[in-house]
Amino acid sequence: MRVLGIESSCDETGIALYDTEKGLLAHALFSQIEMHAEYGGVVPELASRDHIQKTLPLMQQVLDEAGLQRKDIDAVAYTAGPGLVGALLVGAAIGRSLAWALNIPALPINHMEGHLLSPLLEANPPAFPFVSLLISGGHTLLVDVKGVGEYQLMGESIDDAVGEAFDKTAKMLGLGYPGGPALAALAEQGQEGAYVFPRPMTNRPGLDFSFSGLKTFALNTWHNSDKSEQAKADIALAFQTAAVETLVIKCRRALKQSGHKRLVVAGGVSANKSLRAALDAIPKVQVYYPQLQFCSDNGAMIAFAGAMRDQAMVMETEATFNVRSRWPLDELTAPVSA
Ligand code: ATP
Ligand code: MG
Ligand code: FE
């Protein structure tokens, strides 16, 4: 079965074709980052309009790359939430219309389930059960995963997501938007121990996170520094070290609590090298990641999540659809055999 995946929840248009026998056939991505950069963040209306322009050409590109035609698609999986409603509506409308026209099933996919399952696209996928650490621009989640659709929330951020904290700290240091990767790069020039930031919420039990204080700590440290390039790099390193160590402490706790021996990390921040090194150093635990290009938003993870749920695909008889700006992972259920 060949599943076409459509991702349009935020500022990336991602399209992919996944074959349940042959694996990923082709994928394409257009990032709107440059368009939103001058505003310092994503402008929802501009995002929607751009998805409208990019979705069909990218779909054609993916089909051409795979040497296939529309009639060769067996099902359409599209992101139905969480995300920006206008942006989601574009992918949902195009996906559902295409499925309707081709008389094939369409499946609404939860974007965070897409991230969660993305490491399973790799050559040596993790077996269930595992602990999932989802770290992106909008989420910081620890999930006990027993199978596809069997998700139990263990912990989450009570304020900023970790990616958001990277971005806000980067912006404050003048590193542009989205600054996560730039901040990580600058941290490499920092001197270890020049500043020490707190590890929020690690000195009490529980698996929730709080990252907004780190950003404020970085701001105060910057104002009290000599504002040199070195101070900037030292702050970047101190921030990253604190964020990474906090994530590692909570992951160890979640692994201990669940008894699982596998940790599966996904979302944009899972591209962070220093985080990967620190997680890989946890003893007696196997850690799995998506390949770098599939850490942040992409169509491959949506096509794949659709394929994982293929038994749950039903022919939609009504020409209606819905998207959700909020859609908690633990509302999902396991696919049931048709
Ligand atoms: P969500 O998935 O929660 O809706 P999103 O889709 O916007 O949010 P992603 O695309 O998964 O999030 O990830 C983007 C985030 O990852 C941004 O905050 C970005 O700064 C961060 N990021 C990307 N690379 C790195 C890195 N190397 N180090 C730290 N953060 C990074
Ligand atoms: Mg994005
Ligand atoms: Fe995302």
Automatic annotation (TrEMBL):
It comes from the Bacteria. InterPro entries: ATPase_NBD (IPR043129), Gcp-like_dom (IPR000905), KAE1/TsaD (IPR017861), Peptidase_M22_CS (IPR017860), TsaD (IPR022450). GO terms for cellular component: cytoplasm. Binds 1 Fe(2+) ion per subunit. Its cofactor is Fe(2+). HAMAP family: TsaD. Belongs to the KAE1 / TsaD family. This is tRNA N6-adenosine threonylcarbamoyltransferase. The lineage of its organism: Bacteria, Pseudomonadati, Pseudomonadota, Gammaproteobacteria, Thiotrichales.
